[in-house]
Amino acid sequence: MEGTAIVVSPLIALMKNQVDAMKVFSEEDGVAHFLNSSLSKIAIEEVKNDVLSGKTKLLYVAPESLTKEENISFLKSVKISFYAVDEAHCISEWGHDFRPEYRRIRPLISEIGDAPVIALTATATPKVQHDIQKNLGMSDAVVFKSSFNRPNLYYEVRPKTQNVDKEIIKYIKSQPGKSGIIYCLSRKKVEDLSETLRINGISALPYHAGMDSAVRTANQDSFLMEKVEVIVATIAFGMGIDKPDVRYVIHYDIPKSLEGYYQETGRSGRDGGEGQCITFYSYKDLQKLEKFMQGKPIAEQEIGKQLLIETAAYAESSVCRRKLLLHYFGEEYTQDN
Fold it and tell me: In this structure, are strands 58-61 and 32-35 parallel, antiparallel, or unpaired?
């Protein structure tokens, strides 16, 4: 198509990964760019020149950058081919990663200039899908949905006991040479657990938003380059991580929502090979999560409670986990296994 496509994306790291990947496919370096707060004034000028000269086919923008007056007036002068809203579940309060600034995308598009809009997400319940369409003013849009079923993933929930650390160590040692991710709720737990694993001879590194960003990036790279087998992380880790051969994802703590759970477990087995998804569950953890919610706006607490009830039902059920998970995303799974 003629013109530049505007891709709205929520994370600076994610934009950078995707733009770098894009540049591999083209001889023209300016084919993809991003505009966000990490760029210097000079860099921003370069990007704008490439866009105006017609070199740039894909321009990644953070929703916050879209709201800036100077960017709006710049984009008004650009021939826009279409808008793509990535991680579109961020629009919905029922999405597992709600971001209020996503709600402003539609009015901004109208202001900059209408063009076709596509919204993309890997995890959206029927309710979230409806929210996305309503908010972006695309209720008559064509909807493309692939199945939520990942047949190569194995889901298991284990009771969380005093011996959970021992169980995890034993499990990792039964998977020598394989890459895995362990998700914990708190930064402190991330630090403690990665230390425990190292003491037990497992090569593991921590990753969370409270760490120095250089250390964090180095740890992520060590995992991607297979210098370490295990990364112990909060959910800050994973957006835009495209390591195809993660063989297991362990949840040390139950996640706040089944959408979050689906997205985090979905980081295993992306190459089509097996992925083991093991979650440790205790009712106490749910109570902790409920406590975290106190002090938040009432509407947010109500939604949060509802999502926790769904998670608990999944963890405590005796029905096939896959059936339950797919039902949550509005899909019927009729096989018995």
Answer: parallel
The residue written with tokens 């949550």 in the block is: 328
- Map tokens 């083991």 to a residue: 276
How far apart CA 227 and CA 1 sit, in angstroms, is: 42
Over residues 10-36, the pLDDT tens digits come to 887 778 888 888 888 888 889 999 998
* Cβ neighbour number for residue 171 with a 10 Å cutoff: 15
Asked if 50 and 30 touch (Cβ cutoff 8 Å), the reply is: yes
Using alpha carbons, list the distances in angstroms from residue 265 to 72, 138, 235, 253: 38, 30, 11, 13
Tell me which amino acid residue 179 is. Answer: S
For 75-229, list the strands marked E by DSSP: 80-85, 117-119, 153-159, 179-183, 204-207
Predicted structure pTM score: 0.84
Q: How far apart are CA 179 and CA 229, in angstroms?
A: 5
